[in-house]
Amino acid sequence: MLQRRTVSRRAVLAGGAGAVAVGAVAVAVGVPLSRRTLPLELAAMRALVGSRFRTDADGTTHVLTLAAVTGPAGAAPTADAFALTFRAASTQDLPGAIRTLSHDDGDLVLFVGPVGPDGTDLEAVVDRTV
Fold it and tell me: Which of 10, 19, 26, 42 has an alpha carbon within 20 to 30 A of 48's alpha carbon?
């Protein structure tokens, strides 16, 4: 014979209050519960020009600065097609890869690769026209 188990309203409320308390303690001690994702949109990216991002590669944290938002291949940027140029101290340890770029306001996950002759620029191209 199967026994039927019931959960009281009091037990549900106590469990919910406990979960809220755990979340509040985590925030109070600086543990992020989740990271916000930045919108990969032209206007949002233009507003972040000059901002610093961090990424990890082989256990080393690299600081990147969003240097420019341009159109791909010299064209004018549009909401559907634009390029992000990031500047680093060196791209020698940053080969092209899908990376999480962390900013104080949230994260970007995108493919960035080294470009240019001086070895300090990385580029990500967003093209939603294809």
Answer: 26
Rounded to two decimals, what is the model's pTM? Answer: 0.72
What is the mean predicted confidence (pLDDT) over 95-111?
96
pLDDT in tens, 66-85: 999 999 777 899 999 999 99
For the purposes of burial, counting CB atoms within 10 Å of the CB of 96, is it exposed (0-12), middle (13-18) or buried (19 or more)? middle
Tell me the chain's radius of gyration from C-alpha atoms.
22
Give the tokens for residue 104: 């104080």
Average pLDDT over residues 57-64: 92
- Name the 3-class secondary structure at 79: coil
Rounded CA separation 76/96 (Å)? 24
User: Torsion angle of alpha carbons 6, 10, 13, 18, nearest 10°?
Assistant: -100
Phi, psi of 13 (to 5 degrees): -65, -40
CA proximity to 67, closest of 90, 48, 86, 41: 86
CB 127 within 8 A of CB 72: yes
